Amino acid sequence: MESNAASIEHSKPQIHPNNAHDEGFFAVLFDITKKHTLLFTFFFLIPFIVLLISLGLKWYYIFYDTMHYLSDFQSINGKWTDPQNYFSPGIDKYIRELDIAGLVGGIVGIFIGLFLTVTTEKINRQKERLNQQEMDHIKTQTGLLVQATKSLNGIMMEVSGKVNEKVQLMEGTKDVLEGIDKVIELSKIQGNSLLVLSNTAKIEAISPFRMDLVAKHADLKPHELRHATQFDYARRAEALLRDCTDVENKLKETAIYLQKIGSGARVEFVTLNDQNEGSSHAFLKYLGKIFNEHVLVETYRSGSNSALAVNETVPHHNRFMIAMNGQEETDAQSVLIRQLYNQHSQAMREMLDLGVRVTKVNKTLPIQLFISTPRENTPGIQKTLCVCILGSGSNSSGRPSKLTAFLTDDPHIVSSMVELFYDYESDATLNTREFMQKL
Question: What's the whole-model pTM score?
Answer without folding.
Answer: 0.61
